[in-house]
Amino acid sequence: MDKSVIFTEKFIEVLEHEGVVSIVSWGVDEPHVVNTWNSYIVIADENRLLIPAYGMRKTEKNVMVNDQVKITIGSRDVLGYKDYQGTGFLIDGTAKYLDSGADYEFMKEKFSFLTRVVEVTVTSAKQTL
Fold this sequence. Notes:
single chain, 7-stranded antiparallel beta sheet, alpha+beta
Protein backbone atom coordinates (compact mmCIF):
# COMPACT_ATOMS: atom_id res chain seq x y z
CA MET A 1 0.00 0.00 0.00
CA ASP A 2 1.29 3.45 -0.88
CA LYS A 3 1.28 5.09 2.54
CA SER A 4 1.63 8.55 1.05
CA VAL A 5 -2.03 8.48 -0.01
CA ILE A 6 -3.55 7.25 3.26
CA PHE A 7 -4.37 10.80 4.34
CA THR A 8 -6.03 12.35 1.32
CA GLU A 9 -6.78 16.04 0.88
CA LYS A 10 -10.43 15.28 1.74
CA PHE A 11 -9.35 13.56 4.98
CA ILE A 12 -7.23 16.56 5.95
CA GLU A 13 -10.14 18.88 5.13
CA VAL A 14 -12.40 16.90 7.48
CA LEU A 15 -9.87 17.35 10.31
CA GLU A 16 -9.98 21.11 9.72
CA HIS A 17 -13.70 21.14 10.65
CA GLU A 18 -15.06 20.13 14.02
CA GLY A 19 -16.88 16.86 14.41
CA VAL A 20 -17.10 13.85 16.69
CA VAL A 21 -14.49 11.11 16.45
CA SER A 22 -15.36 7.60 17.63
CA ILE A 23 -12.64 5.12 18.57
CA VAL A 24 -13.65 1.46 18.80
CA SER A 25 -11.46 -1.03 20.65
CA TRP A 26 -12.07 -4.57 21.83
CA GLY A 27 -10.15 -6.75 24.23
CA VAL A 28 -11.61 -9.90 25.75
CA ASP A 29 -15.04 -8.37 26.29
CA GLU A 30 -17.46 -6.65 23.93
CA PRO A 31 -16.34 -3.71 21.78
CA HIS A 32 -15.90 -0.38 23.56
CA VAL A 33 -16.44 3.08 22.03
CA VAL A 34 -14.92 6.34 23.23
CA ASN A 35 -15.27 9.78 21.64
CA THR A 36 -13.06 12.78 21.03
CA TRP A 37 -13.02 15.73 18.60
CA ASN A 38 -11.60 16.23 15.10
CA SER A 39 -9.58 19.20 16.34
CA TYR A 40 -7.68 16.88 18.73
CA ILE A 41 -6.38 14.60 15.95
CA VAL A 42 -2.83 15.32 14.80
CA ILE A 43 -1.28 13.75 11.69
CA ALA A 44 2.23 12.75 12.82
CA ASP A 45 3.50 11.44 9.49
CA GLU A 46 2.33 9.53 6.42
CA ASN A 47 0.51 6.84 8.39
CA ARG A 48 0.34 7.85 12.06
CA LEU A 49 -2.23 9.80 14.04
CA LEU A 50 -1.72 11.18 17.54
CA ILE A 51 -4.71 11.65 19.85
CA PRO A 52 -4.58 13.21 23.33
CA ALA A 53 -5.93 10.97 26.07
CA TYR A 54 -7.09 12.09 29.47
CA GLY A 55 -9.51 9.27 30.26
CA MET A 56 -9.78 6.46 27.72
CA ARG A 57 -8.79 3.89 30.38
CA LYS A 58 -11.00 1.08 29.02
CA THR A 59 -9.60 1.71 25.54
CA GLU A 60 -6.08 1.47 26.93
CA LYS A 61 -6.87 -1.84 28.67
CA ASN A 62 -8.32 -3.19 25.42
CA VAL A 63 -5.26 -2.09 23.42
CA MET A 64 -3.03 -4.02 25.83
CA VAL A 65 -4.90 -7.20 24.82
CA ASN A 66 -5.67 -6.35 21.17
CA ASP A 67 -4.02 -3.37 19.52
CA GLN A 68 -6.52 -3.19 16.63
CA VAL A 69 -8.79 -0.13 16.53
CA LYS A 70 -11.41 1.33 14.23
CA ILE A 71 -11.98 5.07 14.13
CA THR A 72 -14.67 7.14 12.46
CA ILE A 73 -14.09 10.80 11.66
CA GLY A 74 -16.54 13.08 9.89
CA SER A 75 -17.79 16.57 9.31
CA ARG A 76 -21.06 17.85 7.93
CA ASP A 77 -19.20 20.94 6.66
CA VAL A 78 -17.13 19.07 4.04
CA LEU A 79 -18.65 17.96 0.75
CA GLY A 80 -18.68 14.22 0.25
CA TYR A 81 -19.29 11.99 -2.75
CA LYS A 82 -21.26 13.59 -5.58
CA ASP A 83 -21.08 16.92 -3.74
CA TYR A 84 -23.45 15.78 -0.99
CA GLN A 85 -23.12 17.78 2.22
CA GLY A 86 -21.03 15.96 4.80
CA THR A 87 -18.41 13.26 4.60
CA GLY A 88 -16.61 10.84 6.84
CA PHE A 89 -13.88 8.23 7.03
CA LEU A 90 -13.47 4.77 8.53
CA ILE A 91 -9.92 4.21 9.74
CA ASP A 92 -8.38 0.85 10.57
CA GLY A 93 -5.11 0.60 12.43
CA THR A 94 -3.17 -0.41 15.49
CA ALA A 95 -2.90 1.65 18.65
CA LYS A 96 -0.50 2.10 21.50
CA TYR A 97 -0.32 4.54 24.38
CA LEU A 98 2.59 6.91 24.90
CA ASP A 99 3.45 8.54 28.23
CA SER A 100 6.90 9.86 27.33
CA GLY A 101 9.09 10.69 24.37
CA ALA A 102 9.13 13.32 21.63
CA ASP A 103 5.56 12.69 20.38
CA TYR A 104 4.22 12.81 23.94
CA GLU A 105 6.03 16.10 24.65
CA PHE A 106 4.85 17.61 21.36
CA MET A 107 1.23 16.71 22.14
CA LYS A 108 1.49 17.88 25.77
CA GLU A 109 2.44 21.34 24.45
CA LYS A 110 -0.71 21.42 22.29
CA PHE A 111 -3.10 19.76 24.76
CA SER A 112 -2.04 20.46 28.35
CA PHE A 113 -4.89 18.30 29.74
CA LEU A 114 -3.59 14.98 28.37
CA THR A 115 -2.12 12.27 30.56
CA ARG A 116 -1.16 9.98 27.66
CA VAL A 117 -1.19 9.99 23.88
CA VAL A 118 -2.87 7.40 21.70
CA GLU A 119 -0.65 6.70 18.70
CA VAL A 120 -2.54 5.04 15.84
CA THR A 121 -0.63 3.48 12.96
CA VAL A 122 -3.18 3.63 10.17
CA THR A 123 -3.48 0.75 7.70
CA SER A 124 -6.47 2.18 5.83
CA ALA A 125 -8.56 5.34 5.76
CA LYS A 126 -11.62 4.82 3.58
CA GLN A 127 -14.05 7.63 2.75
CA THR A 128 -17.56 6.45 3.63
CA LEU A 129 -19.84 9.34 2.63
